[in-house]
Amino acid sequence: MPIVSIDSATSRLSLSLPTELFRQLDVMVEERGLHNRSQMMAELIRHELARYGVRERPDDMVAGTMTLIYRADSGEVRHAIALTQVEYLTEVISSQHVFLEDDQSLEVLFVQGPVRRLNALCDALRSVRGMQQLRLVTTTALLPPLHAHGHSSQMETTE
């Protein structure tokens, strides 16, 4: 596959696909309201590169979400999840919880850290009795530093 550089920010890639796969790609592009196939291909490639990094480079830093679905029959499940999150306090940035029907809960954790630690967090949460589904979705883009430890805020005034 030849790669032709268009400018410093974009390169062109020629790709051959089976006719049916090409047709399905066009349907997906249209259904998602994208302007062209290149946008769809870039999204798919970014997604796969993030998945690849999670499998192949366990020490890389990544950000993402963990989506949990669990039975909330008793407070024990939520308590066990909270205790697990405390063990991974530096990786769990934030969480959002909603109750679903039939005593189920949906919780989304916003996470950042080394792949190895996020995978360990997933394993720890999967072991919680009542956990039904868990999925980690990552990206290589990271959160900007929120605070420089030990430095004063720019909002502070000096006299």
Describe it.
- The chain has 159 residues and is an alpha+beta fold.
- The chain contains four helices and six strands; from the N terminus they run ββααβαββαβ.
- The chain has helices at residues 19-31, 37-56, 75-87, 115-126, and strands at residues 3-7, 10-13, 61-71, 92-99, 104-114, 131-139.
- It has a four-stranded antiparallel sheet with strand order 4-5-3-6. A two-stranded antiparallel sheet has the order 1-2.
- The longest helix has 20 residues, at 37-56.
- The mean pLDDT is 85.
Identify low-pLDDT runs: none
Distance between the termini: 64 Å
Mean pLDDT: 85
Query: What percent of residues adopt helix (DSSP H or I)?
Result: 25-40%
Task: Enumerate the strands of the largest sheet in spatial order, edge to edge or round the barrel.
Answer: 4-5-3-6
In one word, what is the shape?
A: globular
Write the layout of secondary structure elements.
Blueprint: E1 3-7, E2 10-13, H1 19-31, H2 37-56, E3 61-71, H3 75-87, E4 92-99, E5 104-114, H4 115-126, E6 131-139
Antiparallel strand pairs: 1-2, 3-5, 3-6, 4-5
Task: Describe what is shown at a glance.
The protein has 159 residues and is α+β, with helices and mostly antiparallel strands.
